[in-house]
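Action item from last week, closing it out:
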Amino acid sequence: MERRNKRIGIFMLILLVTTLIASFGLILKEHYTFGFIIGGVFLYLATSLGQWFSNKNEDYVHRNIYENNRDRWHN
């Protein structure tokens, strides 16, 4: 399960970089509509990825605090 999440994270980062480059490239080639659409996809992916990593971090911290307190009070 952890390996799958790592692959998804790497795939999302690659997709994020690709959409950013594509957006700038399309805008520089004067395809403004498509550039802004791809830029919107980039913003959506960036927000989703940031929220996903934030939730993973929050879960990690919560589990470690719980484990430390459980060991401290139940010994």
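Closing note: The mean pLDDT is 85.
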